């Protein structure tokens, strides 16, 4: 009798869970309804996506008797709501749709921002509201979405919201050395390595994240770590063997470990 009751309860829980998942899936499909998945971004939207406006906050180390004031809220400034528009590339539409619930929860509940998906212009729009507490929340939210659109994982992009000293840097292979055809393909292969081994080694040694998007290289991390990762990638582009780059990365990882 008890086993039959437990089976009935388990069946009811599975049906309830299935109904909730169906409701969430239907709501997500309604948000992205009408979006052309095969639409490419024009030059203006690509330039807007690659334009980074990172706010640098200067930290003052004052004396212990220094007066500390509360953070200024958006409502206290008496300014109009700020807007940001982040275009969505074609290859990032599916990941955006899959992680839409997590992105909404992060921006709405934690950053107190208003978010919507503009299906006609194929972009995500965010703006401040009366409940927004942090003045820099709108810029952090824009940087978070830009990092996600450029190909970084959701967890790596969320780090921009939590840490103040994270930045993004983008450069092209042709900025370091002019390569064409098979030479460019081999260069990209040297940067990634077999099954991404070289790229992961650079990321772990320099404590950064790297995205290789065709001939563009996107690096996410703090200022010094970006410099180390950029030097390693540039060495590979210029033709240095991976073994020599690995030996430099060992020295870099030791140097970073001694800081903490």
Description of the structure:
By secondary structure, the chain is an alpha+beta fold. Helices cover 53% and strands 12% of the residues. The strands form two sheets. The protein has a three-stranded antiparallel sheet. Strands 4-6-5 form a three-stranded antiparallel sheet. A hairpin with a 4-residue loop joins strand 2 (114-118) and strand 3. Helix 10 (197-206) runs antiparallel to helix 11 (223-237).
Describe, in short, the structure shown:
The protein is α+β, with helices and mostly antiparallel strands and 260 residues long. The protein contains 12 helices and 6 strands.
| DSSP summary: helix tally | 12
Outline:
globular
SSE sequence, one letter per element? HHHEHHEEHHEHHHEEHH
Rg value: 23 Å
| Beta content | 5-15%
Strand element count: 6
**Mean pLDDT, rounded to whole units?**
82
Poorly predicted sequence stretches spanning 5 or more consecutive residues: 55-65
State the strand order across the main sheet: 1-3-2
Largest sheet: 3 strands, antiparallel
Cα end-to-end separation: 60 Å
Overall structural class, as computed from helix and strand content, comes to alpha+beta
Helix content: 40-55%
Family: Belongs to the PNO1 family.
Subcellular location: Nucleus, Nucleolus
Domain KRR1 small subunit processome component first KH: 89-161
Domain PNO1 second type I KH: 170-253
